[in-house]
């Protein structure tokens, strides 16, 4: 005769499976409001296993470029190595919108395996979209930085973000001054990885001057950087950041 604990465990597992199936179905149902599909996507991002992964992989081919790009991003944040072949296929599919291919490249960098280097180098040369090529370059630099770090450093590089995100570049050292970080972020002659590092360091700093510097970088010439800046301002969730994003939408 089974114990009460066995019954509770089985019941909990069944409930978990039902919730997981509901979320997968909701994500992939084009008749659902996009807001509901995004809620399902964000929930699945926090789960492990083949069903959430496969649902997100399917979503990278969705007719909504916004949803497809977010699904690729989620796979990178999960750092699920089983998703690599599908992310490679997305990256190489030139029929997909550049924003989706960009996010697949970033996800491969977030997963961080050395075996992803040839995939990214291939698209760095062949992809016609500059934002995708820039992302491949960023991802390659991130992997090289992981590769050159000690095992302990690798772990810390993945976990230092106070926002619990896997960032496409390691934040610049925390002792860097806001003025110096601002200078680097706004310098159009600097390499993109260095500017990203300054961006994430300013985000982690989080003071008014840091937020002001991030907002000013919305005037950057780089579409890729502006895309990342908008994401970071969303992470910060303060009034100045929200106002800047609203103004950008009105001008867009």
TrEMBL record:
One of its GO terms (molecular function) is oxidoreductase activity. SMART domains: EZ_HEAT. InterPro entries: ARM-like, ARM-type_fold, PBS_lyase_HEAT. Gene3D superfamilies: Leucine-rich Repeat Variant (1.25.10.10). Residues 149-170 are annotated as: Disordered. It holds the Pfam family HEAT_2. PANTHER family: DEOXYHYPUSINE HYDROXYLASE (PTHR12697:SF5), PBS LYASE HEAT-LIKE PROTEIN (PTHR12697). This is Deoxyhypusine hydroxylase. It comes from Hibiscus syriacus.
């Amino acid at each position: 005769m089974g114990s009460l604990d066995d019954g509770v465990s089985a019941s909990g597992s069944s409930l978990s499976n039902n919730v997981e199936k509901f979320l997968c179905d909701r994500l992939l149902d084009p008749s659902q409001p996009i807001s509901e599909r995004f809620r399902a996507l964000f929930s699945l991002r926090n789960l492990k296993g083949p069903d959430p992964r496969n649902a997100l992989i399917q979503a990278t081919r969705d007719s909504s470029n916004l949803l497809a790009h977010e699904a690729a991003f989620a796979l990178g944040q999960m750092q699920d190595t089983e998703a690599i072949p599908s992310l490679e296929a997305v990256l190489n599919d030139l029929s997909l919108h550049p924003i989706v291919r960009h996010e697949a490249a970033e996800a491969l960098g977030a997963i961080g395996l050395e075996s992803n280097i040839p995939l990214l180098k291939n698209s760095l040369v062949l992809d016609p979209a500059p934002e995708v090529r820039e992302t491949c370059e960023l991802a390659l630099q991130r992997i090289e930085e992981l590769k050159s770090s000690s095992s302990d450093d690798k772990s810390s590089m993945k976990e230092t973000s106070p926002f619990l995100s896997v960032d496409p570049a390691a934040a610049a050292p925390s002792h860097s001054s806001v003025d110096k970080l601002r200078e680097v972020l706004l310098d159009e002659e600097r390499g993109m990885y260095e500017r990203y590092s300054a961006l994430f360091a300013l985000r982690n700093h989080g003071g008014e001057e840091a937020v002001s510097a991030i907002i000013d970088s919305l005037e950057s010439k780089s579409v890729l950087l502006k895309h990342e800046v908008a994401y970071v301002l969303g992470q910060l969730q303060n009034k100045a950041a929200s106002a800047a994003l609203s103004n950008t939408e009105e001008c867009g």
